Amino acid sequence: MAHEIFFEDITVGMEMPRLVKGPMHKLQHVIYAGASGDFNPLHTDDDFAKTVGMPKGAIAHGMLVMGFVGQAITTWIPKKYLKRFGVRFAGMTMQGNTITVTGKVVDKKSSGGLNLITCEVMAADENGDVKVTGSFDAALPSRG
Amino acid sequence: MADHAKVGKEYAPVTWEVERGKIRELAKAIGDPNPIFQDREAAVKEGYRDTPAPATFLTVPMMWSTSMPFVINDLAINFMMVLHGEEEYEYFQEIYPGDTITATPKVTSIEEKTSKSGRKMDMVTIELVYTNQKGEKVARARSLLVERK
After folding, report:
1. CATH number of the domain located at residue range(s) A7-24+59-139 in this protein
2. Which chain A residues have a beta carbon less than 8 Å from that of B93?
3. Which residues does chain A have within 8 Å of residue B22's beta carbon, measured at their own beta carbons?
4. Per residue in B111-133, pLDDT tens?
5. Which of A2, A38, A49, A96 has CB atoms 3.0–4.6 Å from A58's, for a disulfide?
């Protein structure tokens, strides 16, 4: 049975199931560097990161944290329904941070034959410091 | 500081052959256990032709092709002072293993802004529209880079 979600199942204000990631470890930055091709030493070399003002050493790639948000979204809404996904990088993710991704439906409308929902999303650490804010649009099937 | 004269400039196309292993590797690096990214059969059951590229996959061709570092260098942005401000994707079609996708990076705007603390920054927007081997539009990517001055 395929994972399915219908337009009728969604209401404005509904929360996306939360996703908890971490605690962050430098090994994951190294694996992500290899996967993504972003080898900026800011993410993998503690000594380098300290010289450019990061007191706790190497910080996570912003795109890794966006990847966490993408994971949260496509665990809930099948990837094939995702139409737009955008984020603003608001804060640095340090080693040891536990990242929680949350989201909420802010709009729902039928337009041009599509059943569209818009959700706001956010990733924050254990202290509530925000790392990423953003939103996505998805076009969902109808039960009708 | 970013070279403001280069707004509108287009760069050499990024061309990328999408491999199944690279899709799986990105999902694993994120720690996303969704089987659609790992296993063709699981993906087909969920209505895909094959294992689809994850939502943030388009960072892979940008970084592995070294297009982004090239653009940053050409714009005379200080690599040590650049931050990734925003990233946005629009999805028109799934990207699958075996696809060859291509896009032309374009600098769509460069604006100087002043932060709350009074620091000047250049905000550089780069856009790419990816097409596949059939010439079909598959996605649009927009990156905002922030250069602290």
Report:
1. 3.10.129.10
2. none
3. 35
4. 999 988 899 999 999 999 999 99
5. A49
Task: For residue B67, name the pLDDT band (cuts at 50, 70, 90).
Answer: confident
Among B60, B63, B80, B55, which residue's Cα sits nearest to residue B146? B80
Distance set, CA B113 to CA B110, B116, B122 (Å): 10, 10, 6
Return the residue of B nearest to A52 by Cα.
B80
Contact B47 A62 (CB under 8 A): no
Enumerate the β-bridge partners of residue A59. Answer: A94
User: Whose CA is closest to A125, among A42, A21, A3, A25?
Assistant: A21
Task: Scan for tokens 């790392």, then name that residue.
Answer: A131
> Which residue segments constitute the domains of chain B, with CATH numbers given?
4-18+53-148 (3.10.129.10)
**Local confidence pLDDT in tens for the 144 residues of chain A:** 567 899 999 999 999 999 999 999 999 999 999 999 999 999 999 999 999 889 999 999 999 999 999 999 999 999 999 999 999 999 999 999 999 999 999 999 998 899 999 999 999 999 999 999 999 999 999 997
Phi, psi at A116, each rounded to 5°:
-105, 140
Mean pLDDT (whole number) for B55-62 = 95
CA distance A96 to chain B (A): 16
What is the CA angle A61-A53-A20, rounded to 5?
35
Amino acid A110 reads S
